[in-house]
Specification:
By secondary structure, this protein is α/β, with parallel strands linked by helices. It is built from 14 helices and 11 strands. It folds into 2 domains: 340 residues, TIM Barrel (Alpha-Beta Barrel), CATH 3.20.20; 47 residues. Helix 1 packs parallel to helix 12 and helix 6 runs parallel beside helix 7. The longest helix is centred in the last third of the chain and has 38 residues.
């Protein structure tokens, strides 16, 4: 049912509980990227946050640069750089450098900044974050395409600014913008011809929001004379899977409640209401998260395709609901069973198996006949050699 292969990856904020050693937590994040690389995942996006205590990577570019040295194939993106917090000339220059250092494996994700507390700490009004992102993106896109930019806003200034390095990637490093509840992500993606990283779910509202988001993106692209591609639209989902649904539920008892409490106390919107008896039941029953098996994930991916008309990537929100061993097992199960089912990696193997099985009796008979023919040939050859040897001995005796 899929018109093109889906990319699989993660959106790594990351989320780490307050009772954990933060140094060790970042080490595990790095190990996770290595694990994903070994298991054939195509991409991972690394976030930027500065307050709240849970999301502890401040500089995704630094983290990605280190991860590039420890991985071979996986593409690594900023997920996201909060561009209202940085001068656009500095951001563009850093990402072009990362494009070169990665030999094209880096991706450039942007957003307005998810935590209002990050903005307030810098003296930025939350109401200004999204307008500032649009201003910054205009400057950054022009710089990346080789323009010399003179531009002045209330918060940054560019005076004949130009990047001293070309992009390694053609025509420039791949760009994507975060999209969640506001229309800003769709507007930015359409206006500047970028991909989208859409954090969503399969609630009725979530599915309707997906259709509206893509329609808005296309509308903005048409208005701006840009083109947008569904294959650059990634959907970010909350998922944990195990061999059985029962095991998946047991696994997430490890850390789900801490995650839910963080979203209730600190993050921008709660995912489970206060006083809910069971967070697991609430997330499953309301189609907010998959806590189940690889088959459940496959069903969700198909549902998302049917509703949206097609998208390019399935990203899982990295969340540490389970312990480390079960977390790695979750990603292994996705790689072993979900990826091949969704992308038809075994279609030719199955066709080959079915063909041979359907013709098994004929092939078996042919094989037996071939063995018997060779056996008979060997017997004839042996008899002929024996007769020749006997004749030679008889002639010698005479």
């Amino acid at each position: 049912m899929f018109a093109w292969p889906l990319k699989f990856g993660i959106f790594l904020a990351p989320f780490h509980a307050l009772d954990e050693n933060p140094t060790n937590a970042m080490d595990r994040d790095m190990e996770l990227l290595e694990w994903l690389d070994q298991h054939g995942y195509q991409e991972a996006w690394v976030g930027e946050h500065h307050s709240g205590g849970f999301e502890i990577i401040n500089c995704p570019e630094m983290f990605i640069a280190a991860a590039l040295e420890r991985t071979k194939n996986i593409r690594l993106g900023t997920g996201v750089i909060s561009v209202p917090y940085h001068h656009p000339f500095m951001v563009a220059g850093r990402m072009v450098q990362l494009d070169h250092m990665s030999k094209g494996r880096a991706m450039f994700g942007v957003g307005p900044g998810a935590l209002s507390s990050d903005a307030v700490a810098q003296g930025i009004r939350p109401a200004d974050q999204r307008p500032r992102m649009m201003q910054a993106l205009e400057a950054i896109k022009r710089l990346l395409t080789g323009e010399t930019v003179t531009m002045k806003t209330e918060w940054f200034e560019l005076n004949e600014a130009r990047l001293q390095l070309p992009n390694y990637s053609h025509p420039h490093i791949e760009m994507a913008v975060a999209a969640a509840r506001s229309p800003t992500g769709a507007r930015a993606a359409g206006t500047f011809g970028m991909g989208m990283l859409q954090i969503t779910n399969t609630t009725k509202e979530g599915l309707e929001g997906l259709k509206n988001t893509w329609a808005a993106c296309q509308d903005e692209a048409t208005r701006a004379g840009q083109t947008v591609d569904r294959r650059s639209w990634r959907l970010v989902m909350m998922v944990h899977c195990a061999e059985t649904r029962e095991q998946a539920r047991k696994n997430v008892a490890y850390g789900l409640d801490k995650f839910v409490r963080y979203f209730r106390d600190v993050a921008t919107f709660p995912i489970v209401p206060e006083g809910t008896p069971s967070s697991v039941d609430y997330l499953i029953d309301n189609n907010i998260a998959i806590i189940g098996t690889p088959d459940d994930v496959i069903a969700q991916i198909k549902q998302l395709w049917e509703v949206t008309g097609g998208y390019g990537g399935y990203l899982m929100l990295a969340q540490n609901w389970a312990d480390w061993a079960a977390t790695k097992r979750h990603y292994e199960l996705i790689a072993r069973y979900v990826m091949p089912a969704v992308n038809s990696l075994n279609a030719r193997r199955q066709a080959s198996y079915d063909y041979v099985a359907a013709n098994h009796l004929k092939f078996q008979a042919d094989a037996h006949a071939a063995v018997q023919a060779e056996t008979d040939r060997y017997a004839r050859d042996k008899a002929a050699r024996s007769a020749k040897e006997a004749k030679t001995k008889g002639e010698a005796a005479e």
